[in-house]
């Protein structure tokens, strides 16, 4: 697989993804496409002019035909939710944008792996499945990869340990109905409920099983950032770059991406996040973790909420 990447949408998220890819040496050929061609040109030039400080790379703006031979196409285009706008109204607006994009890019890059980042990402991923003709294993929604990173970062602070030693994940919708299957959460090979008692620094750990508080922190952290600076772009850009690296290294990495459900956990015909293995083919498959009855009910409620939105939109 080559490492040419096309990013559709040169706003804060798309431009941040392109810049991170240059800084990390993830791709050597990056094409930025945006309805505002001048914006895409400016972002591409600005990023390219810093490439002498990192790995050699070409960063350029282009048209949809320039997506040809891309290994990965990343779609970030879409409008943010406006004050007073419902999630359903946002979904319909961004679905219309996605339909236009898909009709223009898929004919030029039919063999690419597609990563959907635009919100509401689970709905957008589902719609892309239905309209694009791209095989399911090559369609990835960014899902709760960022939510999971936020969770791991918060738990790392609580337990005074590296986030790399925290194995806890966010399942379900990238949104209000997401949840954490705490029965699966471990820290340094200990279940989260037992780590404090086994840690050499137990007196420094204040966490006493406030799982609800932790989930609420994760759910609302995006809104906190938006209220403070108007947009979230850096963390999601790093999350998307991580997904891309997992595809390119091909080893098989467990990620909570949004994918089509086909009967797993009793859920079908909706996209949401559970653990999947990602490799050079895209989605190798889902990891069938055992959930408690309560966790299973939460996952199904999340699926039902997404299906309500899907049923109300036109595509």
Give a summary of the structure in a few sentences.
This protein is an alpha/beta fold and 315 residues long. Helices cover 41% and strands 17% of the residues. Helix 1 (12-24) packs across helix 8 (234-249), helix 3 (87-105) runs parallel beside helix 4 and helix 5 crosses helix 7 (211-229).
Task: Walk me through what this model shows.
- The protein has 315 residues and is of the alpha/beta class.
- The protein has helices at residues 12-24, 37-48, 87-105, 121-132, 145-159, 195-198, 211-229, 234-249, 293-312; strands spanning 4-8, 29-33, 58-61, 72-75, 113-116, 139-141, 166-167, 186-187, 190-191, 253-255, 258-262, 268-273, 276-279, 282-286.
- Strands 3-2-1-4-5-6 form a six-stranded parallel β-sheet, with helices on both faces.
- Strand 2, helix 2 and strand 3 form a beta-alpha-beta unit.
- Helix 1 (12-24) crosses helix 8 and helix 3 (87-105) packs parallel to helix 4 (121-132).
- It is globular, with a radius of gyration of 19 Å.
- The model has no long low-confidence stretch (mean pLDDT 94).
